[in-house]
């Protein structure tokens, strides 16, 4: 929810308001502060092969939307089991750029993402990783985007 009371709802769907006809997709809907829809339902994911699931969203103080989700596959460099993908939307609801693979460690599974914003445009995404490019290589670890990450860094 933005400071103005506007909010967004996102979900994984077996259907799509867009072009994703394989497995599941990530869908979204923006709402005005009074609860009426602000525009049409929209498909978030651009990569449409396999399943897209477990979405998480963060709104900045300016009403920009940052979405992350778990993807079975990636349009980026992660060709193993699961990757973490992201997308940025401007305050008017329009997509800014394309889809971005968030994880840099690409061995095995990256799952259960969560997104947060400090309201000033700084973002944070965290997720579970089976393995790590850091010092924790014994099973599951928690990974994150760099501290102070902003839309311009990846988008």
Large-scale geometry? globular
Strand order of the largest sheet: 4-5-6-7
Number of H- or I-type helical stretches:
1
The oligomerization state is single chain
Number of DSSP strands?
A: 11
Counting helices, strands and paired strands, the structural category is mainly beta
Average pLDDT level:
85
Distance between the first and last residues' Cα: 22 Å
Which features would summarize this protein structure in a list?
155 residues, mainly beta, four-stranded antiparallel beta sheet, 1 helix, 3% helix, globular
Your description of this structure?
- It is built from one helix and eleven strands.
- With 155 residues, it is mainly beta.
- The strands form three sheets. Strands 4-5-6-7 form a four-stranded antiparallel sheet, with no helix packed on it. Strands 8, 9, 10 and 11 form a four-stranded antiparallel sheet that branches.
- A hairpin with a 5-residue loop joins strand 4 (52-59) and strand 5.
- The longest helix is centred in the C-terminal third of the chain and has 4 residues, at 151-154.
- The protein is globular and about 50 Å long.
- The two termini are 22 Å apart.
- The model has no long low-confidence stretch (mean pLDDT 85).
């Amino acid at each position: 929810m933005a400071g103005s009371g506007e909010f967004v709802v996102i979900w994984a769907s077996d259907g799509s308001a867009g072009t994703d006809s394989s497995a599941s997709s990530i869908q979204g809907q923006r709402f005005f502060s009074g609860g009426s829809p602000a525009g049409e339902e929209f498909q978030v994911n651009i990569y449409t092969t396999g399943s897209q699931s477990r979405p998480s969203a963060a709104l900045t103080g300016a009403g920009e939307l940052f979405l992350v989700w778990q993807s079975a596959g990636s349009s980026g460099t992660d060709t193993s089991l699961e990757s973490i993908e992201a997308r940025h939307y401007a305050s008017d609801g329009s997509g800014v750029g394309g889809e971005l693979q968030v994880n840099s460690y690409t061995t095995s599974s990256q799952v259960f993402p969560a997104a947060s914003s400090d309201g000033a445009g700084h973002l944070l995404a965290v997720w579970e990783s089976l393995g790590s490019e850091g010092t924790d290589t014994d099973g599951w670890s928690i990974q994150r985007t760099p501290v102070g990450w902003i839309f311009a860094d990846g988008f």
